[in-house]
Specification:
This protein has about 575 residues and is α/β, with parallel strands linked by helices. Among the domains are: about 80 residues, no CATH class; about 240 residues, Rossmann fold. It is built from 23 helices and 20 strands. The strands form 4 sheets. It has a 6-stranded mixed β-sheet, sandwiched between helices. A 6-stranded mixed β-sheet has the order 16-17-18-13-19-20, sandwiched between helices. Strands 2-1-4-5 form a 4-stranded antiparallel β-sheet, with helices on one face. Strand 14 and strand 15 form a beta hairpin. The radius of gyration is 24 Å and the shape is globular. The chain starts with a strand and ends in a 9-residue tail after the last helix. It binds adenosine-5'-triphosphate (2 copies). One adenosine-5'-triphosphate binds next to helix 6 and helix 13. InterPro entries: AAA+_ATPase, ABC_Co_transporter, ABC_transporter-like_ATP-bd, ABC_transporter-like_CS, ABC_transpr_CbiO/EcfA_su, ECF_ABC_transporter_ATP-bd, P-loop_NTPase.
Length: about 575
């Protein structure tokens, strides 16, 4: 019989700074060699469970524990962090806080140094993983200077070299481009099989996690385990949606088309869905009601980029070079492409944080003549990492800060901040300190702090990374509403469905170059561009192909239109 390597028995945990327990009477057994997905809405307690498995609770995050949690046979209340380092390797949600080395190479080697391995063996192991993860050219770079996705891959390498019996991944995919996301899941699968490791993955991107087999999905809601079942069973019961986690897109589309999922035996892989003529027919009939999509873009030029470029360091290849494009008033643009392609660099240039080799004009005004503060009045920028933006202690003050700096009266501030808090799902937390928020909640605070200023152009660097589905739809619905009012929105995203559903124009980047400026659907029908920019077709395309539908793009469009029916602009007025 297999032994549990992790066991929670009536386990509750209350952070010292909280009045109520975050985990409530949890019972969970995970056997050696199992691969588990922990899913649930933002703030439900997933990372808190993770922190019990790697010893951060109770060694760093202190609080009140009742019940028992045994990891590798040891009671977590009696195990030091040092001991945990031999049992559990973790990718933290916030990769930045995890780096120790001065260079990427040193950082990956850190776990091996801890294990006192000989130098030659260490070099070999680091190089081997760097090769596998295609980050060899980054080994001498400082971890802090990496792009968001590169950081994530380096953190992954640090976990993989360690070969611990428990591998814990807290949102390993959040900043990865679609191709790297799939590759990461395949690598995790491979290493798990090789080491017979126990793998726990915490992720909002459920569909990508399911690209490889998962033994069980454990659903967490409000600090409790509300389901613990094999993937197929859970998908049949539609348990994900019930707690606000996104069901895989192809299943949502089949449901929208009126197909009865309970009659289908295996739902967890498109390839295993029964190829029946009646399902094809049902899908095809449904597609025929596609209305035309409206666009609010005026084609009035707003922001002109002319040979934009920057070099951080003369010894590095150009992170961004020779980018020319015109953004129009009312555009809803997605910036997509490979990790490290220069997307964030472009936004930093537009905001004036770093120098520009070319020229940028906003309504014919040269941005070079404006200070960063003056630019910020016109162009709001929500950074990828919320910790780099937050300066206040309390949530309300953080969101009010920009208005206070602009001398807005307190009554208006209160009204605007409260409205934004509601839109971003943060109203119940308005009196909380930011330090008591989950990572996803912090990210929402930073989005709120920019939205409240209502700038002319809003640039958001992966606003939905690490967000649950409910928040994702609320944030995107709100941005769509702002766009309808004429605001220009630019989003950096790795979410291909977001790009298709919400944006009307895509700029695709690879290795510092703009390689396409086209409609999202055109982009995802071009195999060459998909490959070059490390993109991926969504599962809606795959479903349409599986059922031999004559026009897969039309099917994707039909689904998007069926989703859009659910938006109500009044919600935001
Ligand atoms: N360091 C902390 N101090 C006090 N309270 C905390 C701390 N970290 C988390 N919490 C509380 O625990 C709740 C759950 O946080 P946790 O990070 O476990 O959620 P999560 O499910 O991983 O969310 P997300 O998907 O947004 O990352 C938070 O809403 C917050 O109330
Ligand atoms: N401060 C810096 N110093 C040196 N190099 C940097 C710095 N910031 C970024 N880079 C490098 O510039 C390149 C482009 O980075 P950028 O953050 O613009 O990529 P990105 O397309 O936004 O990636 P991701 O999708 O992973 O967020 C990367 O190779 C990165 O390592």
């Amino acid at each position: 019989m297999t032994e549990p390597i992790i066991e929670f028995k009536d386990f509750s945990f209350k952070y010292n700074s909280q009045a109520e327990p975050t985990l409530k009477k949890i019972n969970l057994k995970i056997n050696k060699g199992e691969k588990i997905l922990l899913a649930g809405p933002s703030g439900s307690g997933k990372s808190t469970i993770g922190r019990c498995l790697n010893g951060l609770i109770p060694n760093i995050d202190q609080g009140n524990i009742t019940g028992k949690c045994l990891v590798n046979g040891k009671d977590i209340t009696k195990t030091s962090l040092f001991d945990f380092s031999f049992t559990t390797s973790t990718i933290l949600q916030d990769a930045d806080s995890q780096f120790i080395g001065l260079t990427v190479g040193e950082d990956i080697a850190f776990a091996l140094e801890n294990d006192c391995q000989p130098k030659a063996k260490m070099h070999h192991t680091v190089n081997q993983w760097a090769e596998e993860l295609q980050i060899k050219e980054l080994l001498k770079q400082s971890p802090q200077s990496l792009s968001g996705g590169q950081k994530q891959i380096v953190a992954l390498a640090g976990v993989l070299v360690d070969e611990s019996p428990i591998l814990l991944f807290d949102e390993p995919l959040a900043n990865l481009d679609p191709a790297s996301g799939l590759k990461t899941m395949a690598i995790i699968d491979k290493i798990q099989k090789e080491l017979n490791a126990t793998v726990i993955i915490i992720e909002h991107r459920v569909e990508e996690v399911l690209s490889q087999p998962i033994d069980r999905i454990v659903l967490v809601n409000d600090g409790q385990i509300v389901a613990d079942e094999p993937t197929n069973q859970l998908l049949h019961e539609n348990s994900l949606e019930k707690i606000g986690v996104r069901q895989p897109l192809y299943l949502k589309a089949m449901t929208a088309a009126g197909i009865n999922l309970s009659s289908i035996k295996k739902l967890d892989k498109i390839a295993d869905l029964p190829t029946s003529d009646s399902i094809s027919q049902e899908l095809e009939n449904w597609v025929d009601q596609v209305p035309v999509k409206e666009s609010t873009a005026t084609h009035q030029p707003l922001l002109k980029l002319d040979h934009v470029g920057h070099q951080y360091n003369k010894n590095q290849p150009y992170p961004l070079k020779d980018v020319s494009a015109t953004i129009n008033q009312g555009d809803f643009i997605s910036i997509v492409g490979q990790n490290g392609a220069g997307k964030t660099t472009l936004c930093r240039i537009i905001c004036g944080f770093i120098s520009n080799e070319g020229k940028i004009t906003l309504k014919d005004q040269d941005l070079a003549n404006l200070s960063i503060k003056e630019r910020a009045e016109k162009i709001g920028y929500v950074m990828q990492d919320p910790n780099q933006m937050i300066s206040q202690k309390m949530i309300f003050d953080e969101i009010a800060l920009g208005l206070r700096l602009r001398n807005v009266d307190e009554e208006t501030i209160k009204q605007k901040v409260n409205q934004t808090l509601k839109i971003c799902g943060l109203y119940p937390f308005r009196h909380w300190p930011i330090s008591a928020l989950s990572f996803g909640q912090k990210k929402r605070v930073t989005i709120a702090s920019i939205l409240v200023l209502e700038p002319e152009i809003i640039i958001l660097d992966e606003p939905t990374a690490g967000q649950d589905w409910k928040t994702y739809t609320e944030i995107m619905g709100f941005l769509k509403h702002l766009n309808k009012l004429g605001k220009t929105i630019i989003i950096i995203t790795h979410d291909m469905h977001l790009m298709l559903e919400y944006t009307t124009r895509s700029l695709a980047f690879t290795k510092g170059k703009l390689i396409a400026d086209t409609s999202p659907i055109e982009l995802l029908t071009n195999p060459k561009l998909i490959k070059e920019a490390s993109l991926k077709r969504t599962s809606l395309f795959e479903l349409a192909q599986h059922y031999d539908l004559p026009d897969p793009n039309k099917f994707v469009q039909a689904y998007i239109n069926s989703e859009q029916k659910n938006w109500k602009d009044e919600d935001y007025e």
